[in-house]
Amino acid sequence: MLFAKSLARAWSCACSIVSYSLIVTRIRVAYQSSYTVWFTVSDYWHTVVVDECHRLAADRFDTFVRAIQPSILLGLTATPERSDGKPILPYFDCRPDGSPAVELRLWHALDLQLLAPFEYYACDDDTDFSQIPWQQSGETSALDKLLTGDHVRASLVINEWQRLTANPRQCKALVFCVSVAHAQFMTSILNAAGLPAACVVGETPTEERRLAPQRLNQGELCALVTVDLYNEGVDLPMVDTLLLLRPTQSPVLFQQQIGRGFRLSPGKESCLILDFVGQHRVEFRFDKLLGSLTGQSRRQLMDSVEKGFGALPAGCHIHLQKRARDQVLHSLRTLTQQGWRNLRRELQAYIALHSNRHVLLKDFLREQLIELSDIYRSAKPSGWTSLKRDAGLLQQPQGDEESYFSEHFADLLHSDDPAQLALLQRIAASAGHYTAQNEHEERRLQMLAYQVDGQQTRVGHYRDFLQRLAAHPVVCEDLQELSDVLQARSHVSNRPIAGLEDTPLCLHAAYGVREILTAVGWLTAECRPPFQSGVLPLKARKTELLFVTLDKSSGYHASIAYHDYAISRELFHWQSQNSAGSETTSGKRYLESPGNGWQFQLFVRKHKGSPYRACGAVTLVEATGNKPMNIRWRLQTPLPIRLFREFSVLRDE
């Protein structure tokens, strides 16, 4: 069975039964009663070839393919990505890395000179598109209302066409409009300017539609003005000019339109593309459109927009006029806040761009300029594994705790302790089947278990945690990739803390409070008491941990408003709890140190929700006031410059 959209036989007759072993048809025919029997017999058809197979995810296609169950399903498409983000690859047997069996992307075809080179101009356009509801039901009507009848923009289109080509009358152009009314309007404008054009839309009589490409090829017309008629399923190799008058956020539609001009034809040197950009909101996705044309990531696009598009296939050229360039660059720079749906689309587009379903987290973050916190976020869903599964990259069944681990890895984003990150990599490399090599590693493993398992009262041994982790190999891959990214970002040296050398804690590294409490033995596999105070006296070792939050404007009672800040790299001002005074047990502990044998360790964070920095041992310089006490501590190890700037009274808020 040849399931076609554009073959002449299928167009001329709804269903051509060449024999009982070969049928050429279209999708709607499968639902007509006279033919239903031929399309619903399971296993009857050995081979089914689907042209324009990106339509498979539509309901009718899905029902059809699942009903006939052919031995071989061959799909053909120039745009495998759908505008709604639904994947089509699950219908097929892909390569081991999950990519299509055979693939040739636009930029590769241009490199191989299988397509005509292009000259793309993003033209300045004052039309304000900022209120258009992109990818919503009112998009087309809003664009129609804005563009149809706009004589200023129409004149700009003609002027730019005349400026950028020697003689528009000699061109063979396709003009893409937003609606029938817009197409009719532009046709009249072009004809009035002495540029013979024909409006060809769905309502155009069949014979007139059939003859229009011939009239263009013969030079009788220099432009065919259309809406969606020529987006796909048609071969017009003579077309050498494209006027994109219908802005879109859909890379699929963009590729379909520009693809009409890339076919090779005798005497055709290149294809001129004039894209009238207009004024858009900052979230308009120029990166997706230009990425589909160039194969460049967002980071590469930003460099190219700033410095020029140098790495293009031979004969190709991209030029952005000043205002268009500024707007595109601004859009690229402000694409930082990512919603989950956008992230999924980002990942799907990235996969399509690189023709590789084995995507590394570090590459995706770097090339798409995405923050780690966009993926590992506080809201659900969250995590690299969850995102890959949502994007259709993971075919294996989902484990019971896969989402749990992926989401809770967000609690590891602060990690920069080099020894801890190295341990995470070893755990991931062993797929969770890891055995601690010494007491420090055992403590570190327990720190990991309690940091990921954030419930305050849940007690458990790290071995049980590793066993749960080992049941989810895909999550171990997630941990490996995350730890690689975190290790590359770490600037902390592996330096023990004076007075806490028996713990795994590293000087100036970042930790969650659960990690710190586990490292010093307050939390154990058998005991997990609650902790909410700002100080923790450990009587057995005569050490008190001081937990300092600099910005208490959020999440604290009004009475809790201590004044804590770094005076210099060596001095830190700390205000005690309101209950501490010169006659109280805690106050005496501070005032009588270090002669009483007590030592104090300082852990500082900027605000609630951020990690603590292990600032090391501090000794008393002076104390004033009472309930609360104002104490000046001297740090045994000076703060690094970057931490002093964060913690000083002059810090940026």
Q: What labels describe this entry?
A:
24 helices, 653 residues, 4 domains, P-loop_NTPase, disordered N terminus, ATP hydrolysis activity, 20 strands, DUF3427, alpha/beta, 8-stranded mixed sheet, 7-stranded parallel sheet, Rossmann fold
| Tally of distinct domains | 4
Quote the distance from N terminus to C terminus: 67 Å
Number of strands: 20
List low-confidence stretches.
3-14, 554-561
Strand composition percent: 15-25%
Q: What name is given to the CATH topology of the largest domain?
A: Rossmann fold
Overall CATH architecture of the largest domain: 3-Layer(aba) Sandwich
- CATH top-level class of the largest domain: Alpha Beta
Helical residue percent band: 25-40%
Your description of this structure?
The chain is of the alpha/beta class and 653 residues long. The protein folds into 4 domains: 2-77, no CATH class; 115-333, 3-Layer(aba) Sandwich (Rossmann fold); 356-489, no CATH class; 532-647, PUA domain-like. Strands 13, 14, 15, 16, 17, 18, 19 and 20 form an 8-stranded mixed sheet that branches. A hairpin with a 4-residue loop joins strand 14 and strand 15 (543-551). Helix 11 runs antiparallel to helix 12 and helix 19 (439-452) packs across helix 20 (462-470). The longest helix has 17 residues, at 473-489. Residues 3-14 and 554-561 have low confidence and may be disordered.
